Amino acid sequence: MCASLLRDFAPLLLGARCLVCGSPAMACCTVCRDRIAGKSPHRVRRPGIRVPTWAANPYRPELARLIPAFKDDGAWVLARVLSRRLAVAVAACRLLAGTFLVPVPSRPAAVRRRGIDHTWVLARRAAQELGIGAARLLRRRDDGDAQRTQGRAGRQRLSGARFLARTCRSPVILVDDVVTTGTSLAVSCEALTRNGTTVIAAAVIGDANLIGKW
């Protein structure tokens, strides 16, 4: 009972606010969590992505506040709600026996700056939720040129040059936090396939091309 009371009143005592609606809560309130959890996964289609791809939620409005806070601002308490949504997207894919989740890696400089490899954290937790494995098969060269400053052609050219892949004999599902143009998923899939790994699907938490309703 004491633990429950402390959990309920801690946001009020600490002045913490829900990052989505601003109500007293530790990062994300119950109402917003329930609204996020109430969304059904949907298919994602982008030029260049050649495997079935699923997203758990629209990126906006809720995830546009939660995902940057998790990976850039140290709101690591959000790992639970975000990884559960990733697990929902993965579950919508065609899971084969022995499937592994493989995260699209962040740039090494971003991992150093954040102090966390956020896609690996989310992939590992989602895999645990589903009772399957997770593996770091991809890594990026750190060329210091952020993808978001490039157009689609530039993003694909830069990404293709810097993704390095290891081989896995088991089927894999690529996972990421958000899909925008789809370039990262496309070139990650190509890098793995080139090395003989079978990529059966991709899954993301948020679809940046779809806007949800409050």
From TrEMBL:
Stretches that traverse the bilayer: none
Q: Could you tell me the keywords of this UniProt record?
A: Signal
Classify the source by domain of life. Bacteria
- The region annotated as signal peptide is 1-27
Family statement drawn from the similarity comment of this UniProt entry: Belongs to the ComF/GntX family.
Return the protein name: DNA utilization protein GntX
